[in-house]
Design a protein that fits this description.
Blueprint lengths: L6 H5 L17 E6 L3 H12 L4 E4 L11 E3 L5 E3 L10 H9 L4 E3 L7 E5 L2 E3 L1 H5 L17 H10 L20 H7 L4 H8 L12 H13 L7 E3 L5 H8 L11 E6 L4 E5 L4 E9 L3 H4 L3 E3 L4 H9 L5 E8 L3 H5 L4 E4 L5 E6 L5 E10 L14 H12 L7 E9 L17 H5 L10 E3 L10 H18 L1
């Protein structure tokens, strides 16, 4: 057995994994991986390829973690979690190749959006012609999503993928709120930008998150359009799980992790106990904060588990009863200053809206009291949509609700983001490992973010174990 993770194992030859070496002790496996998301599954595949006896435990009833494809029968499917694959995501693309999962290039044509603002609808053109624009010069003609990104692109200090952790760049680790204030954006302008933010609030969102995103976007420029998985993003982690020698055990929500000298003991919420020589915890910290960890951990790591922000997201998937966008002549995609925030139209293979929509509500908006009464959610959505698009009559059928908020204790949120000042405190120590307890997950990635970052972290965890 090799002592280190070879390039062959990382980038090829994993499609047919060897049978694992059976555990010779009373342990359930040599290595138990917690979480059947991309990080956990990639780790498990890499270690299985090296002959390790690996068992993956998953708290939910499905494979994929925060990658979740929702099947609506004849209406097709919608994505409830991570879906788009950047052209530079080498690990994801290679895994798909190995497992014969087909990737499809996305249509790069920009999509038009209707903007509902202060009781009126605007097209892109009419928004840019507003007589009393919400943003200061030189951004008077900017759409809500444009100013923050444009300002950040001009000031991005990052020169390498790991510069965000360099103490040299700590002065750039400020809140988006302070960043915008320094650029002359007032409270009303900030409120509009906050509605477009992929974070909980401008105040709790470090600019370093956006600088990382911009650096990676620039690095992959010219690599082609983003990619999607044929049949839905969840098909990839499902294929990864199916390739493992041992079947993933679902429905095993972890209640406690106890680290002993020669083993790790895992207790589930349904009273089962599992044990292994080594455990890799690939749970997001938003879920791990609900698990009792009985092991020595640096205080900074414990603090990160308790407090690392996870973006709260609520998605409402729905079907319109009429082609209202054809009646009112406005784009099918919508941005609003109302609690429904953004509404994205699904499209058929020809790029035409098919009547299925996703309302995506981010940050503080996802936890507003207006969404608390789920039994009344259809009527709430109907009222908002009738206001935003009168031609629809508010007639929508709710297909599914995807809850990536704190109430989803298996996730705690859709994805992490750094708050100002946390990187210098936690980025290094929160990845600390014990002698037999390791961690993985997109929150621990160094160079990539999102789904590719999850894969990167799994690779790192596998190397740590194999290298001893």
């Amino acid at each position: 057995m090799t002592s280190k993770l070879s390039r062959r194992v990382v980038l090829g030859g994993l499609a047919a994994l060897p049978a694992c070496r059976a555990s010779t002790s009373k342990l359930d496996a040599q290595i138990i991986v917690l979480g059947a998301g991309l990080a956990g599954l990639h780790t498990a595949r890499l270690l299985s390829a090296e002959g390790k006896d690996v068992l993956v435990l998953e708290g939910s009833s499905r494979i994929g973690g925060r990658v979740h494809t929702l099947d609506h029968g004849e209406l097709g499917f919608t994505e409830g979690g991570g879906a788009k694959i950047d052209p530079g995501a080498k690990r994801l693309i290679e895994a798909a190749r190995q497992l014969d999962v087909t990737l499809i290039a996305d249509d790069p044509t920009p999509r038009s959006t209707a903007y509902y603002y202060r009781g009126n609808n605007f097209t892109t053109e009419s928004w840019r012609a507003l007589k009393d624009p919400p943003f200061p010069p030189p951004f008077k003609k900017s759409l809500p999503s444009e100013p923050l990104r444009a300002l950040a692109a001009k000031t991005n200090p990052l020169k390498t993928a790991q510069d965000w952790m360099n103490p040299k760049y700590t002065p750039f680790d400020i809140s988006a709120q302070d960043f915008l204030s320094e650029a002359g954006f007032n409270g009303d302008a900030q409120k509009l930008i906050d509605q477009t933010l992929k974070g909980n609030s401008l105040r709790s969102y470090s600019m370093m998150n956006l600088y990382r995103r911009l650096y990676l976007d620039e690095a992959s420029r010219g690599g082609g359009p983003s990619l999607s998985v044929q049949g839905g993003a969840q098909r990839l982690p499902e294929a990864m799980a199916a390739s493992l020698p041992k079947k993933v055990k679902t429905g095993q929500t972890i209640k406690s992790i106890t680290v002993e000298t020669d083993k790790v003991i895992l207790e589930t919420a349904n009273g089962k106990t599992f044990s292994a020589e080594t455990c890799i915890c690939a749970l997001p910290f938003g879920a791990l904060r609900h698990v009792a960890i009985k092991a020595f951990m640096p205080e900074a790591q414990s603090a990160a588990i308790r407090e690392l922000p996870y973006t709260q997201v609520l998605q409402i998937h729905m079907k319109a009863q009429s082609a209202f966008w054809e009646q009112d002549g406005l784009p099918a995609d919508m941005w609003t200053d109302l609690p429904v925030e953004r509404i994205l139209a699904e499209r058929d293979s020809g790029g035409t809206p098919n009547g299925v929509f996703r309302a995506i509500i981010n940050g503080r908006g996802a936890t507003r009291s207006v969404w608390d009464n789920r039994a009344n959610l259809p009527e709430t959505v109907k009222a908002y949509m009738k206001t935003v698009r009168p031609a629809s009559g508010g007639e929508f059928d709710i297909l599914a609700v995807e809850d990536w908020t704190k109430s989803n204790t298996l996730a705690g949120g859709a994805y992490m983001h750094w708050a100002p000042g946390q990187i210098s405190q936690w980025a290094e120590p929160m990845a600390s490992r014990g002698s037999n307890l390791f961690f993985a997950g997109a929150h621990l990635s160094r160079e990539q973010i999102g789904m590719e970052g999850a894969m990167e972290s799994g690779e790192t965890a596998a190397r740590q174990i194999l290298n001893g």
